[in-house]
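Appendix B, example 12.
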Amino acid sequence: MAPPAQLALHGDRFWISPYVYSCFVALTEKGVPFDMVEVALDRKEQHEPGFRDRSLTGRVPALRHGDFWLAESAAIVEYVDEAFAETGPALLPAGRQDRARARQVMGWIRSDLLALREERPTTTMFYAPTKKPLGPNAQVAADKLVRVASQLVRDGRTTLFDAWSIADADLAFMLHRLILNGDPVPPALRAYAETTWQRPSVRAYVERERPTYVPY
């Protein structure tokens, strides 16, 4: 039997978390071997002491690197980028201002647009799309997403910066909440989001075989 990989990413067993997605794509882009450990959130496995106490917060994603454990996706992405700086492409831009902007985009996506995330949850991306139109608050959030993304993605570009970064993965995921549910997205933004959606690292996550969904 092969020894376990030095790295293990703990994620939800339904493979629908945007935060697990971000870390999975980051590790895959780096090209470092890692094990994927599925946590059954529907069975409250995240609260079991063995996982909860090592991850500190009892949340997924959580990364194990040897004896070191780390939770929260933004922290994991930056740790992977620094710990494996000599391996694979950089996950964040090299320039100070571009790197700061990438962090802004990632932080914004994680903390804003709640109404959109509620009405276009990831189950509608990976299980069954919804036919329900956006409510007023979700439409405001969708309009904000399109407005901000249109300011960031200019002149037909397919990346936010000179080279692809993990911020592109996060922004493309958020835009696909609309795209996969048939909501209108400007052609330039659709082309931008779909370019990242076709990256092998992203397809490896998107095309996973998923079990029957159990609400939790």
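The radius of gyration is 17 Å. The mean pLDDT is 95.
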